[in-house]
């Protein structure tokens, strides 16, 4: 007598197995209806053998088995599977199962498996294909994880993503991710391809079709019907299968609902036998189908047509449907109405064109304003220079100097606005050349030293750059550095501004110039004439950083301090 645990999602299966085990002289010490409970039973009760269904919710049978083996629990594990196809036998052996018994086998087989497991022997019925000594790497499932194999089996049973998510207690997003991994690993372009691979390798259980029927005229085996059911049942999109003559032999509920008909009314009908499309369109669709059948290849296309009297744009696909022997039985077809999506795409395109047109008009307006202002600014600058040269009294010279400074700032803003407008229009481009960035930074600091001293700002700089030329655009980089340094100086009169530059290597090997600006406020107020320009100047700097494909972070922890971090990628 052995102490047994039974894990199966089906209550009748658990009851039948439990009664059979008791009649055979064993004791059932626990039952579980999902993988998580089965694992907890394996840990919590003393059992000799666990009968573990392969297809359990929350955790699959293989996942439970691996956890049991990881914790070195002494229980023998017999897997109950849909079949003993080579891929599953090898997977169970690799996971160190003690036996694999197909669910539809004679009870004597299960009795032998239990006896062998208790005696320390493994029991695996050989499939009709290659012996198990052959390497498993030749199987298309060798690269799949246990969870991916479980999801493939659920897909083969016709379950949609939300149902699989409920069964395994995971999110639909996770199921979608596993489906993508399955397509990539099995080289499948669609769900139909996945199901075809699963059917060819015996992963489809025999399931009686519920929402789909075969045509009475079709000569299909039970396995072929199961394959059609798995592809169609539960799919939210309209799907159907036609035979070698173009006659409909199977469809799903979504297809019948779309056309407002019943299966009995359309089975055995060709496209030209129904009134869903105008006659010339129906004939064209039938011809396309026969051409696809002759080529034996899959295809996707967008079709602008008329259906049930209304213009529609359909994204259609067709995939050859073959039996287990590779014989062509027909073509699986599907479509999705993308009329609204196409109309939305056109509306978005028109909105984008309108936005780009408005941006161009704005740029033209700003450039026109700058063009009108520049001559006036130049004239005012020349007039102030003449007044200074005339030997005006010291008090007048001080006012003249202040006015000249304002004119100089205004001229700089005009330059910045013109650059930003040209940047938006794509008229500015980079001209990288070998540049000593350290010298460029020293020149930037020197050019603003006098101005900083005038505002009572202590200007400090330090560089930790290699003494070599680096590929940058010296004009745009130099202008950006001056603008940011001037921003800090103007915004913190009587304070201190520190500038530190170094090179940084990213994980992908790309080198950047990293420049840090730190400014603290002093005992002087910000010039009222300069304050409005600070925000605009920062926007111009961000536009310049975008042009240089860099990044900039501006932080103002308090009203008395500012920190700017700039990173500019070096050209190779």
TrEMBL record:
PAS domain sequence ranges: 224-269
Domain Response regulatory, chain residue ranges per copy: 3-118
Keywords, comma-separated and alphabetical: DNA-binding, Phosphoprotein, Transcription, Transcription regulation
Annotated HTH luxR-type domain residues: 137-202
Species whose genome carries this gene: Caballeronia novacaledonica
Positions bearing 4-aspartylphosphate: 53
PROSITE patterns: HTH_LUXR_1, HTH_LUXR_2, PAS, RESPONSE_REGULATORY
UniProt-listed GO biological process terms: phosphorelay signal transduction system; regulation of DNA-templated transcription
Key word DNA repair present: no
Protein's UniProt name: LuxR family transcriptional regulator
GO molecular function (one): DNA binding
InterPro entries per the UniProt record, alphabetical: CheY-like_superfamily, HATPase_C_sf, NreC/VraR/RcsB-like_REC, PAS, PAS-like_dom_sf, PAS_4, Sig_transdc_resp-reg_C-effctor, Sig_transdc_resp-reg_receiver
